[in-house]
TrEMBL record:
The keyword Disulfide bond does not apply. It comes from Lophiotrema nucula. GO terms for molecular function: glucan endo-1,3-beta-D-glucosidase activity. This is Probable glucan endo-1,3-beta-glucosidase eglC. One of its GO terms (cellular component) is extracellular region. InterPro entries: Beta-glucan_modifiers, GH, Glyco_hydro_17. The keyword Membrane applies.
């Protein structure tokens, strides 16, 4: 009896601690839907809006980027960096890896410039560095991506770029779909990274019963399959979500009610177990009309728009 009480308290304490310490945030692109570059004030508002989500107690204080480059520039560091400093947010950095060696060199240049320009106010906020995003997935479907050997080369370039800087020691990963990580031809990439950034969307798996009621099962099948191929390395969830409006895909129907179901079942369980998590996303529809629309918030002023569904997690005391 004593032992079981002790064990219960101990496990609860561990569980709470890991959930509290995990990274929680949203993905954000460098442009709006119409191609307009996001400026520092836009990133600032996004970061503030994430922290101010009702019931979320400021826990969404991290942002995952896809590029180091400010949109419409060659290699100017992205203005999400000073916005993160202003709003006391952390950053999962991203270097875009599907535009070949010259494009990647611009990413490295922007990364190096940012280290010099912003120093430890920037580098202390970095949770990790993702080299690439869904490059292997796009390659597998015949779109513009990158070969595993190229991703590995870019990972080495990134390690060299941060060696001897205040970013040295930050984990370097690669973000891709779970299907890419379970493909043995890509094992060489997994060997080269410190963490796997897994993207998984039950919505996009119409070959199964992907109704929202079955979405948690589909998600965890993907997560466990990826973990099994992770060579013992941590698996971060770099993208997942459920759309609020748009087309049905298989049995997956976008709605605010279904997004809430997915949040409560899948997202809350990830947070309870302390998995690093970047949701897709806070706002999808600014200056455009995407189908589907993944945003917790619709188009408009991101600070004043109310959330389209609740992002609370009942019973999760650290949240
Ligand atoms: C497996 O990965 C390789 C290398 O990235 C790719 O060329 C191939 O298309 C992938 N296969 C599938 C079934 O996705």
């Amino acid at each position: 009896m004593r032992l079981s009480t002790f064990t219960f308290v101990f496990i609860t304490a561990l569980w709470g601690a890991s959930a509290q310490n995990s990274y929680k945030g949203f993905n954000t692109g460098s442009t709006f839907n119409d191609g307009t570059a996001k400026q520092q004030i836009d990133f600032n508002y996004e970061m503030q809006a994430a922290k101010q989500l009702p019931g979320a107690s400021g826990k969404f204080n991290s942002v995952r980027l896809y590029t180091m480059i400010q949109a419409r520039t060659t290699d100017t560091p992205i203005s999400a960096i000073p916005a993160a400093i202003e709003t006391d947010s952390t950053l999962l950095l991203g270097l875009w890896a599907s535009t070949g060696s010259a494009g990647f060199q611009n990413e490295i240049n922007a990364l190096k410039k940012a280290i010099v320009q912003y120093g430890t106010a920037f580098t202390d906020r970095v949770t990790g560095i993702s080299v690439g995003s869904e490059d292997l997935y796009r390659l597998s479907i015949g779109e513009v991506g990158a070969q595993p050997s190229q991703i590995i080369d870019f990972i080495h370039q990134t390690r060299n770029a941060i060696a001897g800087t205040s970013l040295q020691g930050k984990p370097i990963g690669h973000g891709d779909t779970w299907t890419a990580f379970v493909n043995a031809s890509n094992n060489v990439v997994t060997e080269a990274i410190d963490f796997l950034g897994m993207d998984a969307y039950p919505y996009y798996q119409p070959g199964q019963d992907n109704s929202v009621q079955n979405a948690k099962t589909i998600f965890y099948n993907a997560y466990q399959a990826t973990t099994a191929k992770a060579m013992g390395k941590p698996v971060w969830v770099t993208e997942t979500g459920w759309p609020v409006t748009g087309s049905t895909d298989g049995r997956a129907m976008p709605s605010a009610e279904n997004a809430r179901v997915y949040w409560e079942q899948t997202i809350c369980s990830l947070m309870a177990s302390g998995v690093n998590l970047y949701y897709f996303n806070l706002q999808s529809a600014q200056y455009g009309n995407p189908d589907p629309d993944w945003g917790v918030k619709g188009a408009g002023n991101i600070l004043t728009q109310s959330a389209r569904y609740s992002v609370t997690c009942p019973g999760l005391n650290v949240y």
